[in-house]
Records
---
Amino acid sequence: KNQVEQSPQSLIILEGKNCTLQCNYTVSPFSNLRWYKQDTGRGPVSLTIMTFSENTKSNGRYTATLDADTKQSSLHITASQLSDSASYICVVSASANEKLTFGTGTRLTIIP
Amino acid sequence: ETGVTQSPTHLIKTRGQQVTLRCSSQSGHNTVSWYQQALGQGPQFIFQYYREEENGRGNFPPRFSGLQFPNYSSELNVNALELDDSALYLCASNSPGINEQYFGPGTRLTVT
């Protein structure tokens, strides 16, 4: 069964600090891995997409890494801002037809 | 903004009733997927439509049905509503072969 697990479930950090979110997956065959940011009650917004051959991708203060051998990914947020408070969801696609397996997300809270 | 719109934004229904949710895809996108997201959980895949035909279905009963129209807008219909159907319903559109799904803001359905 295809699964995506994320850790931690929730995280609270001070504004300006860095943090790293983790994602492990057992999706096969692997097509791509995405990180989404979801504000409460809103739709997810894509941060990064990585294919098998990519092991890092950045989008401003967000940097995602992918180890396809160990089936692990991380999302690193640098110099956090209050607006970073959201759920971060790891999503893995098993094929090119875009059927996605979602993790349950990490709830990140940035405090002043 | 992703260019994907959903209506209504919020909806309250009574158990046993029927509901129709609507989604307008981003221009040029002929594939739409629907997801159910319970509070604190990741989105769960309901089904996908490609050029007006169902193109895959998740583990949801037949009372969840859909339509896609020639202009690629879409509907999700749920019959005989149950309390557990209370969730955020998301639609996402993409063009085949492009590794990107664009999510709408969602419809919050509450069943009482």
Note: The two ends of chain A are 41 Å apart (CA to CA).
---
Amino acid sequence: DSGVTQTPKHLITATGQRVTLRCSPRSGDLSVYWYQQSLDQGLQFLIQYYNGEERAKGNILERFSAQQFPDLHSELNLSSLELGDSALYFCASSSWDTKPAGYTFGSGTRLTVV
Amino acid sequence: AQTVTQSQPEMSVQEAETVTLSCTYDTSESDYYLFWYKQPPSRQMILVIRQEAYKQQNATENRFSVNFQKAAKSFSLKISDSQLGDAAMYFCAYRSPGIQGAQKLVFGQGTRLTINP
């Protein structure tokens, strides 16, 4: 157990639908990052939140949105789903300090759009 | 923007041998951090090793070591005494210095490592 919890682990849904992916960061970590990994591809950065505020945005589609709640858990909302949105979605957390700590990744949510 | 390039989509090595995975990056920053992550078939992202750019000494973690060439912007991973459990996708990643809230990881495309028994 990495300490970062992602639910659900698997999700199958139809095109045009909306889903919500949830992430609970490691205890004490204030930053949450969302990444998308399509089949046999690298991880593409989507968005980052720090203590409830959006801090960095990557190649996130307008159909996608995210938020971080006061208890620091985060949700990634994907709407008007397309076949191409099928991917593994990772959440990672890190603590805010100057140490070059790495990032702790959750086990991911595998989204299949049919 | 920073970019990370892994020029070897696939590599293979005989068990117990040594293999080196390549990574280059592009940045205008002088202080940053570099990582190698391993992604086995379970798809879990596992930190293998990290390197601070201000440190000249190459990082080592047991059988894993890096060759960090700052001027050349190169960061290769050497795996010694390869084991079957090392078979995985390996990702090189770059992290900017500690600007509050702007510390995302930028990943390369990965190198798939196969270990031949």
Note: Chain B has no helices and twelve strands.
---
Amino acid sequence: DGGITQSPKYLFRKEGQNVTLSCEQNLNHDAMYWYRQDPGQGLRLIYYSQIVNDFQKGDIAEGYSVSREKKESFPLTVTSAQKNPTAFYLCASQFAGVGEQFFGPGTRLTVL
Amino acid sequence: AQSVTQLGSHVSVSEGALVLLRCNYSSSVPPYLFWYVQYPNQGLQLLLKYTTGATLVKGINGFEAEFKKSETSFHLTKPSAHMSDAAEYFCAVSAGGATNKLIFGTGTLLAVQP
């Protein structure tokens, strides 16, 4: 089955720790995105990548980092510099050119 | 710059009643428009999209939306609500320019009363 997978579904982190959220797609999409979702604020773009080995900051990139070494994978690291990391994180992918984005099931990160 | 406004963060309807979720957009280029649905603790699922052509777009689960350029609107409707329609709905517009980004509204939470 083609689709986007995110792991883990739930993640707990202690303050001061870095954590990495996984996002993998087998749709052969060129572009991949990371969003953060908080209640009442919709989706806010963290980082996006339109091609392997290249990525751009979104609206709220501070405290986050990404890599795009393979077309299929776009991991997100939440660093200790992110002051309020507790949120629901969504990964999406898209064919080149304007069109819909396909979303993964999300990872809920909680900082203890 | 492109933007999306969803009027009403919470909408409540009775089962069997009309569902109307409002979306207005701002775009400097011909827009591509999308509606997504999100159930609790899940990702977003595409309901329907407008790119070009027919302005009345039909989607999954009996939903449809009409692109009205003169009103810069793309409202989502369903003639008869079902309990399973209770979810959060997001409208999105293409950002235009050299990127494929989508700009999302803040969402409308739909409650369906028995």
Note: The longest strand of chain A covers residues 43-51.
---
Amino acid sequence: EAQVTQNPRYLITVTGKKLTVTCSQNMNHEYMSWYRQDPGLGLRQIYYSMNVEVTDKGDVPEGYKVSRKEKRNFPLILESPSPNQTSLYFCASSPETSGGAETQYFGPGTRLLVL
Amino acid sequence: RKEVEQDPGPFNVPEGATVAFNCTYSNSASQSFFWYRQDCRKEPKLLMSVYSSGNEDGRFTAQLNRASQYISLLIRDSKLSDSATYLCVVTGTYKYIFGTGTRLKVLA
């Protein structure tokens, strides 16, 4: 089944404790992206990757890191989480890097609470 | 001014009604346009792409007006299962900009 998977689905952590949220897709998509969703603010793009080893900042990259060593995986790293990073996170992928013209397929989301 | 703006609603409509949502965008260089549906904090799912010529999929019709920089979604014969949040998405080079969504509640 074609899908985007994220792990963990739910996470409670404390300020400053490094964490990684994994994202994997089995559709051989070139483009992958991370979003956070907060009430009243909608989905905001954190980072995106056009292909292996090619990443760029979205609208809200502060406090996050990403890597794209393999086509299928795009982990999101919070080196020192803070309470303002409490949010619902979505990973997404799309088939081609055609300047944003492709639809995206989303993972199920990761709910993160930083105490 | 937000790059993509939507009326948050909620739009409460009876079953069978026709309802329309608009979404305005500020960047005239925007390339592609989509409507996504999101149920209760689950992952967004593509409802339909929006083309300049307009497109229709069953009870759903989407239109794009580049001159006035807005897109619209029309839902005819609303069903209870249409209750959800509808997200407008506008793309630029490699970036996707989401509206905050319009909440629809279809009432029995």
Note: The two ends of chain B are 37 Å apart (CA to CA).
